[in-house]
Specification:
Elements lengths: L1 E2 L3 H9 L7 E4 L2 E2 L12 E4 L13 H14 L2 E5 L24 E6 L11 E4 L2 H11 L8 H13 L1 H24 L6 E5 L5 E5 L1
Parallel strand pairs: 1-2, 4-5, 5-6
Antiparallel strand pairs: 2-3, 6-7, 8-9
């Protein structure tokens, strides 16, 4: 996992008796050069599009390096793309899953950020070999998300309304951010406002 990283994800792993080793992040996200040179783990958990909690975005070059590492080592990457669609000034960088040619990425997303936390719906895109195992293990489990909610979101995606909604939200949030930055500039002698150039803003007391 990344250090610092998402502690709730760490709790899920530890509660399932999985040992965790952390890898530091820098201004480009997870430091791939510090990953082990041999297979010592079953998977690596990362938030490349909006690293939690630093907010940095992993550039394409490092994403390719991470994919190359996973392929050589023979391990999976759990890509948590929890809000990559919300970007105000730049187009999203391709997800790890979309440029993975070795089926080594488990892609996780959610509708909580784009629609509402009360939706309580997420999704995974699994490599073919894991999908087969998933169907075997969970075939007798019931989905906790109401069918009506699933149907509504499916229709939003099929009709293109979900994409329109996300584009509209990005415009609204960008205007709010710009208004915030303008108002907070009055306190520039007390606080330094920094950004990753795309969306996230941090306040650092000088």
């Amino acid at each position: 996992m990344e250090e610092p990283g998402y502690n709730k994800a760490a709790a899920v792993f530890t509660n399932n008796n999985l040992a965790i080793k952390t890898i530091p992040v820098d201004s480009d996200g997870l430091q791939v050069s510090l990953l082990p040179k041999s297979k010592t783990s079953c998977a690596i958990y990362t938030t490349p599009s909006h690293q939690f909690p630093t907010g940095v975005t992993m550039p394409l070059k490092r994403r390719l390096q991470l994919l190359d590492w996973a392929n050589k080592i023979g391990t999976y990457i759990i890509e948590d793309d929890f809000d990559s669609e919300l970007r105000y000034y730049a187009k999203p960088i391709p997800s790890l899953q979309s440029i993975d040619v070795h089926n080594s990425v488990i892609y996780c997303g959610t509708f909580s950020k784009g629609l509402s936390p009360s939706i309580r719906m997420g999704y995974m895109i699994l490599p073919p070999d894991l999908l087969k195992q998933y169907k075997i293990i969970f075939k007798n489990y019931n989905c906790t998300a109401p069918l009506l909610n699933q149907y509504v979101i499916a229709r939003l995606i099929e009709t293109g309304l979900y994409d329109r909604h996300i584009r509209r939200m990005n415009i609204v949030f960008r205007k709010r951010l710009e208004r915030f930055l303008t108002a907070f500039s009055l306190f520039k002698n007390t606080f330094e406002i920094s950004s990753n150039g795309k969306r996230s803003v941090f306040l650092v007391k000088v």
